[in-house]
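Task 17 of the worksheet. Students: predict the tertiary structure of the chain below and write it out as structure tokens. Keep your answer in the requested format; marks are given for formatting as well as content.
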Amino acid sequence: MRVSSGLATPPQEQSDRPIRVLLVDDSNVVRSIFARMLSDSGEIEVVGEAGNSEEALKLLKTVRPDIILLDIEMPERSGLDALPDILDAAGGGRVLVVSSFVEENGPAAIRALELGACDTLSKPGRFGFAGRFPELLVEKVVRLGSSSRLVARKNAAPENAIPISDSKFEIPVPDCIAIGASTGGIPVIYEIVRNLPAELHCPVFIAQHLPDAFMEFFARQLSAHTDRTVCVPKPGMEISERTIYVSPGSAHLTCAQNGRRRKIEHLDYYPSSRYSPSVDALFESVAQVYGSGALAIVLSGMGNDGAAGAVRLSAAGANVIVQDAESSVVWGMPGAVAKAGLADAILPPPLMSRLLARAVQQ
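Model answer:
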């Protein structure tokens, strides 16, 4: 049973107003440079500046930014330490971590995303703000800010989205689970993996948009949430039960079948997608190998990666569920699947876990 593709268009809150930004950095020079870069775009308004985390928390009592640019290394209290409190005080504002530390120390970037930051951007040295950095900064702020201004996001999903309490909606025990995610996906992946039923032995494939340098650390962090084996697999590796396979960032994770043997493959090039790793590439291969036995999950993320793969999965008889708009940081990837009428259910993450629990209890 597929969810209706007739979606209400979510209203925008003063969509013609500038995107409001709060700058949090201990360097006056950096804040001045960022303010100029952002203001010159014509789409962004800097509504406040803070030299440390405590100043930021005080400002958030009086200003409501769409985006908070947050440095990591600051005196007294680091940006990472303050990030949960800043998110609590931000009233729905998104955090973009801009720090030289996220390039020098990959784990810091992953940790920021785990704690709820929407994205990260490596900050160049004081004399390296030329080149593409201004363009990248403005692009990320505009994309995240435009998304954050969509209000009443729960109304973006169809009214007839299938509720978990509907006893008519069941899924069989899956032969595999394939998860695709981007911006805002990491905390949800942790939640789903942490709550996988012990009776569920199938392999799990994950395509999360991240730079290749972060993937091994992401896999190690993920392994802390489960007793299953977690790895960034090499091509040719045989697929095993109770194993979670994380796609590398430098290639597309796919699976293949040779007789009764199922194995991991890497695609260096997938022409149908501009994303790496590609959720579409993963989903297409899963549809070919597992067919109706697959379960695909599309989580928060910008763009539409996964929508084309969902077409293949749907045609093969597989179940496709997507994260709901209200719990998503960005309802781009799951929204694209839902709008195409390819979602069997639109659910918040806790109900996804309950759905899997129901499957193994049948």
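Marker's comment: The radius of gyration is 21 Å. The first strand starts at residue 19 and ends at 24.
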